[in-house]
Amino acid sequence: MGTETSSPSWQLSDLELSRRSARRRATGRSVLIGVVSTIAFAVIVGLLIVNTPGWESVKTSFFNVEVGIESVPSILVGLWLNIQVLFISAIGVAIFGTLLAVTRSLRGPVFFPLRAAATIYTDLFRGMPLLIVLYLVGFGLPALDIFPRMPAMFWGTIALILTYSAYVAEVLRAGMEAVHPSQRMAARSLGLTHAKTLRIVVIPQGVRKVVPALMNDFVSMQKDVGLISILGAVDAVRAAQIQVAQSYNFTPYVIAALLFVVMSWPMIRLTDWLTARLAKREQIGGVV
After folding, report:
1. For the CA atoms of 140, 141, 142, 143, what is the dihedral angle to 10 degrees?
2. Distance of CA 78 to the CA centre of its chain
3. CA distance 36 to 42
4. Which has the higher per-residue pLDDT, 8 or 174?
5. Chain mean pLDDT for the chain
């Protein structure tokens, strides 16, 4: 573009202009076809659903506008608890997951016990359902009577950190191992210690390689934060459950689901945008 504007006498050839015009027409045609096909698909699916035999019953039980409006304030209060737990959990997962990844990447036989412990930890918590971890942490640890009385959201946060740290640690370790060995050797040849090599050279490059995967884990955690309701915390899910028990209508569950989608949607779009951007840079040979 800079070449085109810096030389007044330079101009595009007729062939190039025709190519660009053809590309614009093709793009406009593709967008139009996409919009029309999407609307047609939505109309067909909607007609199929509203013409099912049980639609009136489902509409009354799950899409009652009056019940939904009444349940919004209490669900929003519960959602604020979910956001607080998510914020603290994200910080804890980032710290603990990084420590696990660094521990698993330690070299030398003297660090074998630490590597083995980190490996067992990640294998254990990646293989165990989050629901069971919540039960064990939320009901098992308080029963030991060695901790002061803590609210349910505290134990839910601990369970989320324990579980998602294992996933994030493996993603980070994969990114660190993807850094070319010459980067480590160059850093060590400059006199950097192993710790400084990890902190200044390896971890920044490794994180950049796995940013989309890390963001996907964060999106998953945004949904799973609703599971802390099983410990008794009055979050959005528990608030919806209370409203359902009072109204004998399932609409509050739909309201809670929509609010979770609204909360997750910005990060989902950002993840897709970043993934596409990194893929485009790789295709043109840019530095990733």
Report:
1. 50
2. 20
3. 10
4. 174
5. 87
